[in-house]
Specification:
By secondary structure, the protein is mainly α. The protein has one domain. The protein has seven helices and no strands.
Length: about 180
Amino acid sequence: MRLLGHLFVAALALVLAIPCGAAILALGAMLDPETSAALSRLGLVGLFAGLTDLASGIGPETLLFALAAIARALFVLLVVPPVLVAILGTVLHWRAATWYGAGTGLLTACLPWLARGLSRPGTGSEALALEGRITAVLFLTGAASGLVYWLIAGRHSGVPSGVLSGAPSDRDNGRA
């Protein structure tokens, strides 16, 4: 029965942590002027390309494929890192806030680099600065979702089994 309770709390924590990460990602993209400009350029280019495709007779399924690709990318950035870190932390009984915050942040920040094979499309200093800014925003996104998970469920994920089962501890027996 306790396992079901822990699973429920973990699921609730993930349901609350993932939107928190999405909010931090949106806030970071809006507040950082260079990231906001880059994302808006990409968004406008995609919008204009989609409108051009619709006007030239290509069906709306093209836009649906683009939306599916965006949804898949957001799933990989916002859902996968907190879930992986939560599972690993629970299995290994790690309760540290640094594990959940920094682990989720690092995994989130590294995913785009790993997905493209650590190659950089641009080699200029502007491209490198923009990549650094985006990596920082992604790290903050993951760290926020990891810390929200830790606040709700992660602090209790590594509780020793004797404490959960109600077995008396040494302090209860007078052997402090």
